[in-house]
């Protein structure tokens, strides 16, 4: 599976587990919903700064978010 596809799926899964909307996640990260939407659709990848923020927001490791491990 391509990284973008995996990453976007993992983001969607984490967001839905929390029962949040894309707008709520974007607000939590301090970005526009459209910006977050592009991460979740696989259209864009986050900068390192946003990648770290996503891991912190969802309470998972960078390796989990990147698909290098299944251990959160």
Structure notes:
There is one protein chain. The chain is an all-alpha fold and 72 residues long. Helix content is 67%, strand content 0%. The protein is built from 5 helices and no strands. Helix 2 crosses helix 3 (33-41). The two termini are 20 Å apart. The model has no long low-confidence stretch (mean pLDDT 95).
Order of helices and strands: HHHHH
Average predicted local confidence, pLDDT: 95
**Strand residues, percent:** under 5%
Number of strands: 0
Give helix % range: 55-70%
- What do we call the CATH homologous superfamily? lambda repressor-like DNA-binding domains
CATH topology-level name: 434 Repressor (Amino-terminal Domain)
User: What is the top-level CATH class?
Assistant: Mainly Alpha
Biggest sheet: strands, sense, closure?
A: none
Which keywords apply here?
72 residues, globular, 434 Repressor (Amino-terminal Domain)
